[in-house]
Amino acid sequence: MFFCSGTLLAQTRFDYFYLEADKSRLAGDYASAMELYQHCLDINPCAAEAVYNLGLMKLFLRQDSIEVGIDMLKHACALDSCNPWYLETLASIYLNARKTSEAVPFLEKLAKLQTKRTDVLSQLASIYRDDGHTDRAIEVLNRIEVQEGKSVQLSMEKFTLYMSKEEGDSAFMELQSLCDEYPHDLNYRVIMANQYLEAGYSNKAMEIYNYVKQKDARNLNLLLAMMNYYRTNKDNEHFVQLRDSLLYDSGNNNELRVALMRDYIDEVIQDSTKSNVMLQTFDSLLALPQKDSQLLMLKAAYLTYIKAGDDKVADLMNRVLEVEPGNQTALWHLLQYYGAKNNMMAVEDICRKGFNYHPEELAYAYYLGRSLYQQDKNSEAAEVFLQGLRTKSEDARPELVSDMYAILGDLYYQENKPLEAFAAYDSSLVYKDDNISCLNNYAYYLSTRNEQLDKAEEMSYRTIKAEPDNITYLDTYAWILFMKEDYTNARIYIDRVVKPNLSDEELLKVKDLQGNLIEHAGDIYAECGSLDMALRYWSLAIQKKDDTCTPLIKKKIRKKKYIKSE
Predict the structure, then answer these.
(1) Helix, strand, coil content of the chain in percent (nearest 5)
(2) Are residues 364 and 351 in contact, defined by beta-carbon separation less than 8 angstroms?
(3) 423 within a domain of the structure (yes/no)
(4) N or C: which end of the chain has fewer CB within 10 A?
(5) Residue 372 in contact with residue 348, Cβ under 8 Å?
(6) What whole-number distance in Å separates Cα of residue 403 and Cα of residue 340?
(7) Long-range contacts for 1-5 (Cβ within 8 Å, ≥24 apart)?
(8) pTM of this prediction?
């Protein structure tokens, strides 16, 4: 550090306050740090490190204008022009602000100081290229090449730059130099031939292709290049012949076949008359043993694109699972497919596969549990839900977790385990406090046990606020009011479920109006003193014949009064 003026004592004072400033900055006491750095500059205005840190903090804390901080960093670079850290910091600030021209002088100086920093040279080459300084870009790429050696990337970048200058000879000399550097790698010659073909020199390209063919007739890059050559020259016969030979060559892998078939699909999209031939090619390839699912998935994607039918796509997805039982795309597709068809046995099978291969994916456990629940396999469903909740990932969707706990609550209550059921409902509401179905069932079961009726009423009221026309939720709320002996208000809400102005025939035709809801209406009217209406509703409830009424309903009719269930 150079002192503009001063003594050893000044040096000692500077060092002390500079260390104190650093300590304050690292401790997060930025106000003290800035004050101490400024004090350092009062002692020695030429201290580049103090200028740099103070300027950086002004930028970081957005004190003064951005220009003030940048000017201080530029001043630090001027004071210590050989400090690469200062240069790189200032260059980065300019680059982040997209002021590339301002960054260039500092990057150039940095590149001279650290000649092996090819990352800095690459940044300079990119800026020169974008700004149209082609010669400078080429010169920098040559400097990178000295450090790293020749490569396809560097040679192609220089080739492109020469071509942009319309210096074709120099461009192809660059590629020739690459070929000369690696004479045994024929792929570089194929690259050069491809560029000749693209530039319109078909004869020159074919000359090189023939040379490579003599050396290695099965060179894959050569064969693909020849396909492009035939396509460019509209030689469809040779193009198709070569493509088919590559597709059916047992030595080639599925990655190549998939790439060729993707190209084929693009061709068919432009000319749909070729679709049948392409599908026949797919069928022939898929008749061969499949090591992976790539071709199957590609054909499924194409069938989906042309809307060939869900059944055909599902057949392919089932074949995918034969090759890759844990393929997520196929599992999800088939889950949706069988779910739409309400085929619960198939859903169960798919979800078991998904659950076995991806136990952390909660959705498989969820849909497996639901499919078992709908098949009345309640104990199996409960076990699946519990296992899924135990193995779920940290980022599992809260609404899914909530629904699983809610269904567990229903299952426990059906098994006459109210404590476990209510604990499950509480867990459900932790994950999603507005789970309407859970709130309804929780509230209803509390009311049937005549427990915590105020809590039940609050939960039930939230459901009818969310869905004011849902007759199941309205019935629950009315029944809770009934259990609280608020019969007048209970009747107001049950009238929205079982509308008194409808005829008996009309009530029986209401799709979602189950017998137990009509029975509740009868119970409420009985306690309101309207026995005729109560008897009418009880009689209609029996006529529903849906096995939802209580065993006491006939006794109610016979005794002509409400009888409380035990």
Answers:
(1) 75, 0, 25
(2) yes
(3) no
(4) C
(5) yes
(6) 20
(7) 1/44, 1/47, 1/48, 1/49, 2/46, 3/44, 3/46, 4/44, 4/45, 4/46
(8) 0.68
Output the domain CATH number for residue 42: 1.25.40.10
User: Which tens digits make up the pLDDT trace of 470-507?
Assistant: 999 999 999 999 999 999 999 999 999 999 999 999 99
Q: Is 64 left (phi over 0), alpha (psi -120 to 50) or beta?
A: left
Q: Per residue in 543-561, pLDDT tens?
A: 999 999 999 999 999 999 9
- What amino acid occupies position 203? N
Domain membership of residue 257 (yes or no) is no
Runs of H (alpha helix) within 250-395: 254-270, 275-286, 294-305, 310-323, 328-340, 344-357, 362-374, 378-391
Scan for tokens 């509390």, then name that residue: 446
Dihedral, CA of residue 442, residue 447, residue 451 and residue 457, to nearest 10 = 70
Q: How far apart are CA 157 and CA 150, in angstroms?
A: 12
Instruction: Give CA–CA dist 119/67, Å, rounded.
Output: 27
Give per-residue pLDDT as tens, 296-313.
Answer: 999 999 999 999 999 999
Q: Is the residue at 74 inside a domain? A: yes
- Please write the tens of the pLDDT for every residue from 335-357: 999 999 999 999 999 999 999 99
Number of domains present in the structure of the chain: 1
Examine the pLDDT at 3 and tell me if it is beyond 60.
Answer: no
- Tell me the two tokens of residue 333: 């597709």
Instruction: Supply the range of the domain harboring residue 20.
Output: 1-80
Do the domain assignments include residue 64?
yes
Q: What are 325's two structure tokens?
A: 């039982």
